[in-house]
Model the fold of this input.
Amino acid sequence: MAILICGILDGIIEKPRKGTIAIAERGMTAVGFTLGNSACLEDETTIKQVRDQYKLINAGYFSAHTMAPLQFGNIVGNAEEVRRFLINATIQLKALMDKVKGKAEIIIQVSFDVQKAIVEISKSADISNKIAVGKAFFELSQKNKTSISQALKSKLSGHVADYVETAKVRETVILHNSYLVEKAKKELFDDALDEIVEKCDDFLIFNYVGPLPPYSFVSSEFNKGKFELINEARLALGLKEQCTFDEVKSSYREISLKVHPDKNEGEDKKMKELNEAYRIVTAYCNSVNESEYSFTKKAIEQSFVHY
Done:
């Protein structure tokens, strides 16, 4: 027997949903379901069935809980392995919970209606010339990608906590973005998106998927050791090995003023990295519950999360 973990919930779940298992540790609950064995994922038909069940379980819990959905395929042998994972990844998981609390993922994909796009291209290019059509199609794609990206960034910025740009999945797709949106702001997000869609040409197709569990915003930090993870975050914030939380907040504010997108021509990568470092350090500080915090390797490895 094996257990496929679908996601981690913030809090203790007393009564699991039908067909699922719930394993609690450190104030969190791992939810999933049992498999006959891990080898069952070698069969394509079975993989689809398991993946569908994985999505259903995440969707069912997501509606009422703060959830960090794990990437598909996290299989363990027994409940004790699940508990060890929750213990070893507590800091990472708590930081992730802080990031996704009260939020959902919404996917926006923009593609061409090919026939209508060709009509548009025919206004300026000889459509009997394949090279000319290809060039015109590329130019139309780049022009619309740039203008729509700018419009989305401008109109949606006040309603979005984070976003991920995904590589296009086929040639007619010019944009595929995932947005982390506060559930309470979903209507505002939708209204802002509607304004953008109304101003776009009719050869563009907008596809909207969500709200979903925040799959695209799952932390990639689970492979790092606790000390490595927290030490990198400390260095990103420019903190000494011994500091108070007031110093943590002060350093965050000082650096954020320098790297904020408003000061860096809209470049928000550094701000995202800073916010992630702040979440990790905050989770660590909350876990040790002291007035002054030590970031030495010994102190971090010996830390224990209090609830």
About this structure: The CA atoms of residues 237 and 252 lie 6 Å apart. The chain has three domains: 2-87, 103-216, 224-301. The chain has ten helices and eleven strands.
